[in-house]
Write a structure and sequence with these properties.
Layout lengths: L9 H15 L4 E3 L12 H8 L1 H6 L3 E3 L12 H10 L23 E4 L5 E4 L2 E4 L4 H13 L21 E4 L15 E2 L15 H8 L2 E6 L8 E4 L2 E5 L16 E3 L2 E2 L8 E2 L4 E3 L5
Parallel strand pairs: 1-2, 3-6, 6-8, 8-10
Antiparallel strand pairs: 4-5, 7-9, 9-10, 11-14, 12-13
């Protein structure tokens, strides 16, 4: 009901998402997990349809990864992703193969979505999940298969090495190296400890060796909204626009707006450290 909007609730979240879509008119939307707060909903499927409702209503393509709270209701992680992959205008896939990911003659920007898990036990200690070796092997293979797509076939030269389309990566739980940004120059606010896994599975080194990932977008930390550079790759929090578990009283909700400029001679990522603020109740 309209009277409920004065309180911090999921209705505020839905309204904020609608306003962001109307204000920005994006080409694509990415959701970086904790799409629903599983432990507080009796019906995960119903909550997912509510959460992604504005995205589907916009008729724009979108994709999502899971956080560590999505599966705490009536559906497990596989069931959640299966449902998300079938939703209107969703381009999310479960364990996609390299075949058919994109048309090699048209690929100008690749988007990698990875499941960072929820919680796990490592050497007898409870910790957050991490991106597994099998996932890193997959992303390396897919990246390598794009090698040479952007070659100038009309004017080939031996001096011009094959290049890959640039890429962005999206996942929920930050990697351990994000903690280093506390001591480096950042854009945005470092407002809470980085809640990462005890396991460093080599994500950063994998991205560096691939050479095509220019920026990574993460979630999980409820009030961090900063961007920082690690070895030439930007790592950015989405900011969190949820009114259920994210944000805090008196802090305007926000969403990360990404502007990719791919024309020759222009920056690849412009505004990567930019937040979008909208005035919202509480």
């Amino acid at each position: 009901m309209a009277s409920e909007f004065e309180f911090c609730s999921d209705l505020n979240t839905t309204r904020f998402l609608k306003r962001i879509i109307q204000a920005e008119n994006p080409d694509f939307m990415a959701f970086t997990g904790d799409n629903i707060f599983g432990s507080s909903t009796p019906d995960a499927a119903e909550s997912l349809f509510e959460a992604f409702g504005p995205a589907m209503e916009s008729r724009l393509p979108w994709a999502a990864v899971l956080g560590n709270h999505d599966q705490e209701s009536t559906l497990n992680r596989e069931e959640l992703m299966s449902l998300i992959s079938l939703m209107d205008y969703s381009v999310s896939q479960i364990n996609p193969s390299a075949d058919g990911l994109t048309n090699p003659t048209k690929a100008v920007l690749n988007l990698f979505f990875l499941d960072s898990g929820d919680e796990a036990v490592y050497q007898g200690i409870q910790t957050y999940g991490w991106i597994k070796d099998s996932q890193l092997h997959w992303i390396r293979r897919v990246s390598q298969e794009f090698q040479g797509q952007k070659q100038d076939h009309l004017h080939p030269t031996d001096a011009t090495p094959p290049t890959k389309p640039p890429a962005l990566a999206f996942f929920h739980i930050p990697i351990p190296e994000i903690q280093q940004l506390f001591y480096k120059e950042i854009v945005g606010q470092f407002q809470e400890n980085v809640a990462c896994s005890l396991v460093n599975s080599g994500v950063l080194q994998t991205f560096i060796s691939m050479g095509d990932v220019k920026a990574v977008f993460i979630g999980h930390d409820h009030t961090n909204d900063f961007c920082g550079n690690l070895d030439g790759i930007w790592f950015c929090y989405g900011g969190g626009f949820g009114y259920h578990g994210y944000g805090k009283a008196g802090w305007p909700r926000r969403a990360r707006i990404i502007l990719a400029e791919l024309e020759k001679g222009k920056k690849f990522l412009d505004g990567g450290a930019e937040n979008h603020y909208l005035e919202t109740p509480r």
